[in-house]
Amino acid sequence: MGITPNSGFRWQRQGGTGKELLLTKSGSATPPNAWARLVRTGNTLYGYKSTDGANWTLVNASTIPMASNIYIGLVVASGSTNVLNSSTFSNVIVVP
Fold this sequence. Notes:
This protein is mostly beta strands. It has strands at about 1-5, 10-15, 20-25, 35-40, 45-50, 55-65.
């Protein structure tokens, strides 16, 4: 689940090992008034979007086999090979 200034909210996933990336775009996003949430229930990941951090809308979900414990990460990209990105994350919460 991600946010881009150009294409708004996006749910990106791989269709399987060695398969192409799949992308679902879902509305505009204007940081800092844009929030993304990822929720795991069993083997299903749910991606949500919000424009106020209080009201959440489901964008998409994917069911994949997962171990009991998984790692999370935050990533940024400038969208250009010639431009560096500088980002600040806030309100990051991980709940076991």
